[in-house]
Design a protein that fits this description.
Layout: H1 3-17, H2 23-29, H3 36-44, E1 48-51, E2 54-57, H4 59-82, H5 87-100, H6 103-112, H7 129-132, E3 142-144, E4 153-159, H8 164-173, E5 180-185, E6 190-194, E7 197-201, H9 203-206, E8 209-213
Antiparallel strand pairs: 1-2, 3-8, 4-5, 4-8, 5-6, 6-7
Helix pairs in contact: 1-2, 1-4, 4-5
């Protein structure tokens, strides 16, 4: 999602927690400039409804904003408790963290922290599925491509190889960090699908690609 949209959604959410819905209050909460063009664009994307001087969420906007707030406050909780980061740096890092964290990692962080209900600023953390199900164990998320079974998929997080030619080949194929790879075949050749294409590769290459397994 557009980063500017995300900033505005967060501002609307935090303002709404204080029962403020006016554009003036939302602008006070937002870290970026909120102009008419941005608001009209968000309304067209079915994220907000502009009602006079008030700005309200659509159902889609509520879902996206809740997701962002949950990740931000989980990031604050992780930084404050597990990493003992001071409050000033905690806020700066959390602001970046929330936009980069993948859903697969979010649940692991929440479970690791024991499903916290409030962030270090005593603001409520929206519940996730892991909270509702009271998950207590963290499944190993980072695996090699070769570890995945046919039909499973994962988002590339890093490559681990000293062979520069392999890295160059992967880059030429468009396999990079953030790309979701799906395993279509394992033997006799490893075949993966991504971005509307399929590629066959040697099994040893699959052992060098590390991914966060995505949900089926």
């Amino acid at each position: 999602m557009n980063r500017k949209y995300e900033e505005v959604l967060e501002a609307i959410y935090t303002s709404g927690e204080k029962d403020y819905h006016s554009l003036a209050k939302i602008k006070e909460q937002c870290h970026i400039e909120v102009d008419d063009d941005l608001l009209v664009s968000m309304e067209k994307e079915d994220l907000i409804i502009i009602n006079g001087s008030d700005v309200l969420f659509t159902q889609n906007g509520t879902r996206e904003a809740t997701r962002l707030i949950r990740r931000h406050r989980l990031a604050e909780s992780l930084l404050a408790s597990a990493m003992q980061t001071d409050h000033k740096r905690m806020e700066e890092i959390a602001c970046e963290f929330e936009h980069a964290i993948y859903p697969e990692i979010e649940e692991s962080i929440c479970t690791l922290l024991g499903h916290p209900t409030h962030c270090p600023h005593d603001r409520e953390i929206p519940q996730g599925e892991c909270c509702k199900n009271q998950v207590t164990t963290i499944e190993q998320k980072v695996k090699t491509l070769s570890d995945l079974a046919v039909g499973q998929s994962g988002r590339v997080t890093y490559f681990k190889t000293d062979d520069t030619s392999k890295l160059v080949k992967l880059q030429q194929l468009g396999i990079r960090k953030g790309v979701v790879l799906g395993v279509q075949q394992k033997y006799p050749t490893l075949v993966v699908s991504y971005e509307d294409q399929e590629v066959a590769m040697d099994q040893t290459v699959g052992e060098d690609i590390y991914l966060v397994q995505t949900k089926s």
